[in-house]
Specification:
Layout: E1 11-16, E2 22-28, H1 31-37, H2 41-44, H3 48-56, E3 59-64, H4 68-82, E4 98-101, E5 109-112, E6 121-123, H5 129-142, H6 162-166, H7 169-172, H8 186-201, H9 205-220, H10 224-243, H11 251-271, E7 279-288, E8 291-301, E9 304-305, E10 311-314, H12 318-321, H13 327-344, E11 351-355, H14 358-370, E12 377-380, E13 386-388, E14 396-397, H15 403-430
Parallel strand pairs: 7-11, 11-12
Antiparallel strand pairs: 1-2, 1-3, 4-5, 4-6, 7-8, 8-9, 8-10, 12-13, 13-14
Helix pairs in contact: 4-11, 5-10, 9-10, 11-15, 13-14
């Protein structure tokens, strides 16, 4: 199994069988290392399930993530949508926990597995509920998070009855600032809420500085018990920073990752490819009155731009410079790119996309044939966004909202932008 294309960074990997179907989805801190575990004797030893899975895998796609948390949540969402056969352990309704701060006059803080559109503030999700429980308990014990934990419904204009206050264990053990009993004002309680939100958002640099200043001052004034409280505050915050991923999760990441998977699957279905095209290269040309003739190729890996594989070409073909058409320019660009790939030993693209119509497609096919290679290729015309395919007299036009069409348009437009940029740069240099 070739895993050389996988980076050593966090992300989600999608394992596909011979038919291209996704049979397993997982997350990893190091994608390449995690994938390698499936195809080594030590990695599959003692795990028949792993061995059976590895025997069926023919291709591994991936979606990069900026952190383990992003990978974690994207994995959960993709599994929910795709329901891969080998992800049996995920097919229940279990979700990851959040820490919720309610929207009330005196907000409460507690763990929940259900995220609702109720105006409350949610933090997470967190991968380990046991650890988050211990962490919150530590914060409550030190007083760092000191919001109420009860479920009583009251506000400033509708106070709680004395009977219920007297029955509250948090009140009697002083594990709550007791806004129900009037021991803290709404504005002072708001300061505690903001501090809690800063902690859970990861914005605790200012807090740490204030705690350190308070600890030093209390110590110099020989108020050692107070200094110890500040010390415990600082230890609790450090503990959170070391053990919990507190960066806010960008929900757009999930949506974009899922869209890329859907787009590549759609392209596979339209073109009747064996697998979703994880590696696509798109070509365009640019010239002005047959002068400064240039071409470009851009690369998309798993639906994302991979600028390290972008290439630009100054056209060498003499008849082009003498005033011929752009068809030979396209042939030269495709031929030079495929020759580079062939010489370097790089894996071939899963699909080539040509900016143009049937004529450009024909010349691109001639370039592929001259290199003695077999690479799927299509052309995408600008005017009606028609897709031309080899061996088919009719074109395919996808609806504007189709994810496959959107990705093809993005790649075509990026190739055009890159070609124009190089053409202008070359023209300015030679003038």
């Amino acid at each position: 199994m070739n895993i050389s294309h996988l980076p050593e960074t966090p992300g989600v990997y999608l394992m596909r069988d011979a038919s291209g179907a996704i049979i397993y989805i997982g997350k990893a801190r190091n994608l390449k290392k995690r994938a390698a575990d499936y195809f080594t004797g030590s990695g599959t030893a003692g795990s028949p399930r792993k061995a059976n899975l590895a025997a069926l895998v023919r291709k591994i796609d991936y979606i990069p993530a900026s952190s383990e948390r992003e990978a974690l949540v994207a994995e959960r969402e993709l599994i929910r949508r795709c329901q891969p056969f080998f992800n049996v352990m995920w097919k229940d309704s279990k979700t990851y926990p959040y820490v919720k701060i309610t929207r009330e006059d005196f907000p409460r803080v507690f763990l929940t597995r259900k995220k609702e559109d109720d105006g409350a503030r949610y933090f997470g999700p967190y991968p380990r509920v046991d650890f988050v429980r211990k962490l919150l308990a530590r914060f409550w014990k030190t007083g760092l998070i000191n919001l109420r934990q009860c479920r009583w419904d009251f506000c400033a204009s509708r106070p709680l009855s004395r009977k219920r206050i007297n029955a509250c264990l948090y009140y009697h053990t002083e594990r709550c600032p007791a806004p129900c009993a009037g021991r803290i004002s709404k504005s002072a309680y708001g300061i505690l809420v903001r501090r809690t939100k800063d902690l859970l958002s990861g914005r605790y640099g200012k807090l740490m500085k204030n705690f350190e200043t308070g600890m030093k001052k209390a110590s110099s004034d020989r108020r050692y018990e107070e200094a110890a409280v500040y010390r415990d505050f600082m230890n609790a915050v450090k503990h959170m920073g070391e053990k919990v991923l507190v960066e806010r999760f960008d929900a757009d990441f999930i949506a974009e990752g899922v869209k890329r998977v859907e787009a590549l699957t759609e392209i596979r279905n339209i073109l009747k490819l064996k697998n979703p095209p994880g590696h696509i290269e798109t070509f365009d040309t640019s010239s002005l009155f047959a002068r400064h003739c240039t071409a470009s190729s851009v690369c998309f890996i798993n639906g994302e731009r991979n600028t390290s594989h972008y290439r630009r070409y100054r056209i060498r073909f003499k008849s082009v410079r003498a005033g011929s058409n752009d068809l030979e320019m396209m042939r030269e660009a495709v031929q030079r790119r495929l020759t580079q790939i062939k010489k370097s030993g790089e894996p071939l693209p899963d699909l080539l996309v040509i900016d143009g119509g049937p004529s450009q497609l024909f010349y691109a096919m001639a370039a592929i044939k001259s290199c003695n290679l077999q690479v799927p290729v299509i052309a995408l015309a600008k005017r009606f966004e028609e897709i031309y395919m080899p061996g088919r007299s009719s074109t395919v036009t996808l609806p504007p909202e189709n994810p496959g069409r959107r990705l093809l348009e993005e790649m075509r437009d990026e190739a055009h932008r890159f070609a124009i940029h190089y053409h202008r740069k070359l023209r300015d240099k030679l003038q």
